[in-house]
Specification:
heterodimer; A: about 525 residues; alpha+beta; four-stranded antiparallel beta sheet; three-stranded mixed beta sheet; 9 strands; elongated; B: about 200 residues; mainly alpha
């Protein structure tokens, strides 16, 4: 008896044997135990290999993957453009001393921008707990807010180039919304920092390189010292409030320098040039926006925007503070028209590219009531967030999540748009966040492409999260999105199956939908989808 | 042809072609969507061929960058996955060439944030299985790059012979014989290293 060859066994296992060859092989297997064993071993080896070579880096990894690819593409695009420059090939650049100097300048600017970004990223870390402590103190003791100079305001500013939020409580009279408050504060804050009054206390110093450009350098022996909160003398009969130290501190006297009003850091020459270089780049930050459409971490765009705080046409800048006037870092500021959002910096400042002359912006931060406001493009605004009460069964974050979701439902920018839901999902658990964000993405994509297949995908993704939102604030909006996607799919390709699905989804939504624009839309769609 | 568990969530050919056309027309969102749909498949190939998370990440990202650059030459309607697999394999090859050494399995900085696919709950059993997998992965790493590639596309990615032939640029008959030799060699390596032939 002629046994099956390894090729044949493999092909049989892989389902690649066809017709007569397959029938012959199967007939042989029926009568040959050796070949059956060999086939089973081969299958088991494949199974083990599959398990041995598999690795799941986790949802978080894949959630940001596209954004990282976008970043690489952008970087590669920049290279390509430079290579295509007037001179021709790369060698051309190295033949010309002037161009070589220019290359050196670009490299220096990039390195400088890198250090600035590292410094600013690093500084965000201690800001959040301190702010939380501050806002908690404010909630617990309203009388404390009336103190003319809260103890927090006296924290030193010299030890870091960038003011931390605890060093940034303005005087109470500046609480009113004033158009030019931020630029003024910036001007006042400049001298003590630019003068470098405290030797060795800066994270970096600025030197000039051969090309005449300012580049930041880390001074030798520089040791980072976190700012030390000073404790104000308590007024008679009043308790003292001071943030708890989060790290051990060497016993050094507090550096000189008055409190930083407004706490806004001056924009350094490096940042200006880095921002200019970025603005001049052919593939702008906007080009990768679709990749960045993931809630949470601040995007490159956010970092860029906050580093050049200049309002202009189509741009709104300002700062977000709590009701005691302290900056709120990491707050999301979004243009409700375009869905573009940025995070506030450690000093609460932000700059947002907006659409239209009077865009409506939404501001949200964990622990604060979300806020919607119409602003004027080109204006500098000061936005005061109200802290959410910590009383009650749910955590602050959960309450904020529900509230946000309700707001998203109550007033959608374009009727039926899924975009506001993205922000609601951003605060959900991991599953909801990923699925929900994905569903919003697919919906946005379907709106752009408009094919039935794209709408089918969006509807399927919304359907997947149905179980996760039953009984919650998001149940109805999700139901609406399913109905909308099913209907749009049917509109794009009018098959009987799609009509059935659209009617079922619309009925599901209409069974519970309250009166309103969305219900009206659904009713008209149902009339259209009647066979 | 049997079908892997991950195929169910894939786009249908019409959707793929729509996305490709949109991306070719400069629609960044469409390309981002392509990335999201195929990131897991590309990562699987990248990980199988590098066996460490840092290199897999690099290869996977670079694969999409190359795909973006070459998208203009891609014909809408062709399946994307074999094409992306081919780019991923080439990226892994060039990483191997750059390294001039076999990839290592030791340092996996991203492992902690991830989780392995479901395995036995019993810790003893789990360890034994993990060891077996490590031995197998190590043996796999000793195969030639061509054998690693053909096994990865077949066993891990579940591509058909035709798709593999397309991805590797070889005739379909070559796929069959190459796969067969790769499996025989892998079995011999496992046996030689004292592990039981599973």
């Amino acid at each position: 008896m002629k046994h099956l060859t390894n090729d044949e066994l493999g092909a049989l296992l892989d389902g690649a044997l066809e017709g007569g060859a397959r029938r012959d092989a199967e007939r042989h297997l029926e009568s040959c135990a050796d070949c059956r064993d060999a086939l089973a071993r081969l299958g088991a080896l494949d199974e083990s290999l599959r398990a041995a070579l598999e690795h799941d880096p986790g949802e978080e990894y894949f959630g940001t993957f596209a954004a990282r690819v976008g970043g690489r593409i952008r970087a590669a695009g920049l290279q390509g453009v430079q290579a295509r420059g007037e001179g021709g090939g790369l060698a051309e650049w190295f033949r010309s001393p002037r161009k070589l100097a220019w290359v050196g300048t670009v490299a220096a600017v990039v390195a400088g921008a890198g250090i600035v970004m590292m410094v600013s990223r690093e500084q965000r870390m201690p800001a959040i707990p301190t702010r939380d402590l501050g806002s908690r103190a404010a909630q617990e003791s309203p009388a404390d807010r009336a103190l003319p100079a809260p103890p927090l305001a006296q924290a030193p500013s010299g030890s870091r180039a960038r003011a931390l939020p605890l060093a940034a409580a303005p005087a109470p009279e500046s609480k009113a919304e004033v158009g030019a408050s931020a630029p003024q504060a910036r001007a006042e804050a400049s001298p003590p920092l630019a003068g470098s009054a405290v030797p060795g206390a800066r994270a970096y110093q600025v030197r000039r390189n051969e090309a005449g450009d300012e580049v930041p350098v880390v001074p030798p022996g520089f040791v980072y010292r976190p700012p030390r909160p000073a404790i104000a003398p308590a007024p008679p009969g009043k308790p003292v409030y001071a943030p708890k130290q989060q790290y051990a501190l060497p016993a050094t006297p507090a550096p000189e320098g008055g409190p930083l009003r407004g706490g806004v850091r001056p924009v350094t020459a490096d940042e200006e040039s880095a921002a200019r270089a970025e603005a001049a780049a052919p593939s702008s930050a906007e080009a990768i926006t679709p990749y960045n459409y993931v809630g949470g971490a601040p995007t490159r765009k956010a970092m860029r925007s906050t580093s050049q705080r200049v309002p202009g046409p189509g741009r709104v800048c300002g700062e977000v503070v709590d009701d005691a006037g302290r900056p709120v870092s990491g707050a999301q500021v979004a243009d409700r028209g375009s869905g573009v959002s940025v995070s506030t910096a450690a000093d609460g400042s932000f700059c947002l590219d907006t659409r239209g002359a009077a865009p409506e912006i939404a501001v949200m931060a964990v622990g604060f009531e979300p806020l919607w406001r119409t602003v004027q493009s080109g204006q500098t605004v000061r936005i005061t967030l109200r802290a959410v009460s910590v009383l009650g069964g749910q955590s602050q974050a959960a309450r904020a999540f529900v509230r946000e979701a309700r707001l998203a439902i109550g007033s959608s920018p374009a009727p039926g748009s899924a975009v506001p839901l993205a922000r609601a999902f951003a605060r959900g658990d991991t599953y909801l966040r990923i699925r929900g964000t994905n569903a919003v993405r697919l919906t946005t994509l379907a709106e752009q492409i408009g094919t039935a297949g794209a709408w089918d995908s969006a509807a399927a993704e919304w359907t997947r999260i149905t179980d996760g939102v039953v009984g919650g604030a998001l149940e109805l909006p999700v139901s609406f999105q399913i109905a909308r996607a099913r209907y749009a799919a049917w509109r794009a390709d009018r098959t009987a199956e799609r009509a059935d699905r659209a009617r079922a989804a619309l009925a599901e939504f209409l069974a519970r939908a309250p009166a309103g624009a969305e219900r009206d839309s659904a009713l008209s769609w149902r009339r259209a989808a009647v066979p | 042809m049997k079908t892997g568990p991950w195929r169910s969530s894939e786009l249908d050919p019409g959707q793929e072609a729509d996305l490709v056309r949109a991306a070719q027309g400069g629609d960044q969102a469409a390309f981002a969507e392509i990335v999201r749909h195929f990131q897991r498949a590309v990562y699987r190939v990248a990980y199988a061929l590098t066996r460490n998370a840092a290199d897999a990440d690099d290869v996977a990202q670079e694969t999409f960058v190359r795909a973006y650059q070459a998208l203009g030459r891609f014909r809408p309607g062709e399946p994307l996955r074999p094409w992306l697999s081919r780019i991923a394999v080439n990226q892994a090859y060039s990483l191997h060439r750059r390294r001039k050494r076999r990839p290592e399995t030791s340092i996996e900085p991203l492992v902690e944030s991830g989780r392995q696919w479901a395995g036995p709950d019993d810790p003893v059993e789990r360890t034994a299985e993990t060891e077996r997998h490590e031995r197998l992965a190590e043996a796999f790493g000793r195969l030639s790059p061509e054998h690693q590639a053909v096994l990865t596309l077949r066993v891990v990615e579940d591509l058909s012979y035709e798709e593999i032939a397309n991805a590797l640029g070889v005739p379909a008959g070559t796929v069959m014989s190459r796969l067969s030799r790769a499996r025989a060699e892998l079995r011999a390596l496992v046996r030689a290293r004292g592990g039981e032939e599973s």
